[in-house]
Automatic annotation (TrEMBL), chain A:
It is an enzyme of class 7 (translocase). This is NADH-quinone oxidoreductase subunit K. It catalyses: a quinone + NADH + 5 H(+)(in) = a quinol + NAD(+) + 4 H(+)(out). It holds the Pfam family Oxidored_q2. GO terms for cellular component: NADH dehydrogenase complex; plasma membrane. Belongs to the complex I subunit 4L family. The lineage of its organism: Bacteria, Pseudomonadati, Bacteroidota, Chitinophagia, Chitinophagales.
Length: 105, 167
C-alpha cells in the first residue's frame, strides 16, 4: 500500500482545518480546527515512521516520540488558549474573534 | 481492481474521518462540532493502529478524546453558546476562505502526486510497542522530555493566572 494515500489524507485533513480557521468566527471552532491541523501532521509523522521502519531503519521510533511532544504542546496550548477565551467571554460576553480587533487601537 | 483488507480498512476510516472533519467546520452548533471532532480523533486512532503505533493510539484517545475535548465541551457548556448567537462572516469572506483552503489542497496534491516513496508493507513490527518507545524516549530524548515538563508547568501556571478573577 503506497504511503501516498496517507499523505493525501493528511493534506485533506490539514486543508479542512485551514478552511475552518478562515471561514468561522467562533474562537472555539477556530481552536478546534487548529487541533485538527495538528492531528493531520501527527498522522503523517506516524505514516513516515511506519515507512522507515519497513525500510529497515532502527531509529524510526523517533517520529512517534515526536508525535508525543506535539501532543504535549497541543495540551499546553489548549489549557492556556481556553483560559484566554474564557477571559474574553467574561469581559465581552462573546467569543467572536472580530471583537479582538480593538487590540489594534 | 484487487483491494486487500488493509486498503478497505484505510478507505472506510478515511471516509469517516473526512466527513466528520467537514462536520467540524460546517455544523451550526458548537456542541455538534465537538462531537464530530471526537469522532475524527477516533478514526485517526484507528489509523494509528493500522500503522503499528498501538501505544500512540491509546495515548491519543486518552489525551484528545478524554481530556482536551472534554475541556472544550466544558467551556462551550459554561458559556451557553447556541447556533443563533454566532455572528456570521460576510458571504464573500466565507467563499474566499473556502477557495483558499481548496487552492492549498490542490497545490499540495499536485506537488506530491509524483513523489516516489517506499510503500508500506502489511507486516507488523514492534516499533510502536511501549517497550521500544520507552527505550527511545528515555535514552535518546530524555532532555526534551524534561523540557516539556517545564513547559507543562508554565502552561498550568499561566492558565491559572489568566483564568483568575482580578480584584
Amino acid at each position: 500500500m503506497p504511503v501516498q494515500y496517507y499523505i493525501f489524507l493528511s493534506i485533506a485533513l490539514f486543508c479542512i482545518g485551514v478552511m475552518g480557521v478562515l471561514m468561522r468566527r467562533n474562537a472555539i471552532i477556530i481552536f478546534m480546527c487548529v487541533e485538527l491541523m495538528l492531528n493531520a501532521v501527527n498522522l503523517l509523522l506516524v505514516a513516515f515512521s511506519k515507512m522507515w521502519a519497513d525500510a529497515g531503519r532502527v531509529d524510526a521510533a523517533g517520529a512517534q516520540i515526536f508525535v508525543f511532544f506535539i501532543m504535549v504542546v497541543a495540551a499546553a496550548e489548549v489549557a492556556v488558549g481556553l483560559a484566554i477565551i474564557v477571559m474574553v467571554y467574561r469581559n465581552s460576553q462573546s467569543v467572536d474573534v472580530n471583537i479582538m480587533n480593538r487590540l489594534k487601537n | 481492481m484487487g483491494m486487500n483488507l488493509q486498503q478497505v480498512v484505510f478507505g472506510v476510516l478515511s471516509i469517516i474521518s473526512l466527513i466528520t472533519a467537514l462536520g467540524v467546520v460546517f455544523s451550526k452548533s458548537p456542541v455538534t462540532s465537538v462531537l464530530c471532532l471526537i469522532l475524527t480523533f477516533f478514526t485517526i486512532a484507528g489509523h494509528y493502529v493500522m500503522l503499528n503505533a498501538q501505544f500512540l493510539a491509546v495515548v491519543h484517545i486518552i489525551v484528545y478524546a478524554g481530556a482536551i475535548m472534554v475541556l472544550f465541551l466544558f467551556v462551550i457548556m459554561l458559556m451557553n453558546l447556541n447556533a443563533e448567537g454566532e455572528p456570521q462572516k460576510r458571504n464573500w469572506l466565507k467563499y474566499a476562505g473556502a477557495i483558499s483552503g481548496g487552492a492549498l489542497l490542490v497545490v499540495l496534491l499536485a506537488a506530491l502526486r509524483e513523489a516516489s516513496l517506499p510503500s508500506l508493507t502489511p507486516e507488523s513490527n514492534n516499533i510502536g510497542l511501549i517497550a521500544n518507545l520507552g527505550q527511545t524516549l528515555f535514552k535518546t530524548y530524555v532532555v526534551p522530555f524534561e523540557v516539556s515538563s517545564i513547559l507543562f508547568l508554565s502552561a498550568m501556571v499561566g492558565a491559572v493566572v489568566i483564568g483568575k478573577k482580578e480584584h
